[in-house]
Amino acid sequence: MAEHKYQPISHDHTAFMERALRRKGFRRAYDALDEDYSLIREMLVARLRAGLTQEQVAAAMGTTKSVVSRLEAVGRHSPSLNTLTRYAKAVGCQVVIRLIPTTDRTAQRRTDPPAR
Prior knowledge:
Radius of gyration: 20 Å
Largest sheet: none
Structural class: mainly alpha
Oligomer: single chain
CATH superfamily of the domain at 26-100: lambda repressor-like DNA-binding domains
Strand content: under 5%
CATH topology of the domain at 26-100: 434 Repressor (Amino-terminal Domain)
Order of helices and strands: HHHHHHH
CATH class of the domain at 26-100: Mainly Alpha
């Protein structure tokens, strides 16, 4: 059996993004995932700050590593508030949710309740 040597493939993220942003519809799709990526970044930072592996978080949550892996992957699934709370507790954090008004007045008018 032939031995395979590990040869990492270099990746230039800046060049990749420049090419990708030229593709039709990419910018809209990429921007639509901004909130998902922000949440995942926060989760990863919290886990790393706690010095925990996915296996350790899974054990603290009473679940499996594959569940934690899915939680930390964008676009695969939207976790419930209960699941986010369990993850946060496992990494020594708490979940805080805020509704922040947008600056788009049109969106506000559409959602304002009718006057009586």
